[in-house]
Amino acid sequence: MEAFRDVVSDIYNQFKDKWHSTRTLLILLIVAVLVLLRVFAVVDLNRFSRDELILSILVLLALYFVWYATTRVQKPPKNKVGFGVALVTENKEQQAKIYHDFIVTLRDLLYKSRFRYQFAFINYPQYFAEKLESGDHATQFLMNNNLRFLIYGRVRTRKLDDEETHILQLDGVVAHKDIGPEFQKQFSAEFSELFPKRMEIMSQNDHLSFEFGAEFLRIVAMYIISFAALISGDINYSQDLLEALNEELKVFRLENPTIVKIRARGRQRLIDVYAIQSFSLMRNWEKTKDMKYALEAGPALDRLQRLDPGNYDGHIQRALWLFVTKQGRSKERA
After folding, report:
1. Other CB atoms closer than 10 Å to residue 182's CB: what's the count?
2. Distance CA 304, CA 275 (A)
3. Which one of 27, 32, 148, 232 is at 20 to 30 Å from 291 when CA atoms are compared?
């Protein structure tokens, strides 16, 4: 009896592992047809009654839609920002460890972050991760599935200096609108410089190392996404991410050269955001003479002055803003 249970369990696990393949669907449909023929005790298909034929078709369609619904690529809702992870592991034990100690930690940290826009975190199954063989494949996958950011790669466990170590070979792609060659060059350079291509985590106390690794990766990803949003013209979204990161990095417990760079560059990007906002609003006032634009520029100029008191463009915009609002108030009194 024990041997029988082991055989059944082994068959079930193999079937579960191959559930996503079209071969599994074909086998499932063939088995279903044979079962239906046995249930209706029909060998000659011409003897199938109309009701039996309809029932058989409905059963086969139901099996197909169940298979399709459980194997199709998961997409984030349209009102959320898609953040995907697709990692290839060597075995089920490693897959479980990476999921519980790294991926779940990354997901929880992302959801705990206070952003105006909600994230939809998706951990893609192994069979999707195995298809991402290059940056082009990953970029196409990102665009087809409404993701803003995708981390992909492979995980291996090897002995380094006689210590069992988890080696994460990572890469990432981020969505942005078509940008000019100069912006593309700058963005690619920053991405390559900041994104960790390789992470080594020793097995001893690895849950803590995975936690630090996930937290570090989240900070890098948020900065890269905010930069992509900025150069794509999504200024409000970039502001939301950068302000949150700026506050977090003031008390961030992990310190390394990459975090130092992100702290400095994130502050500069935020200065750029406030400068762009104030300039755009004052430009809109110039075109329309609508005072609402000038009034909206005030808070952006205040934020710019607090963050960078010596900003020259900010002083020029502030002088124009003071002149415009003073003239507007004079007209209202008149």
Report:
1. 9
2. 7
3. 232
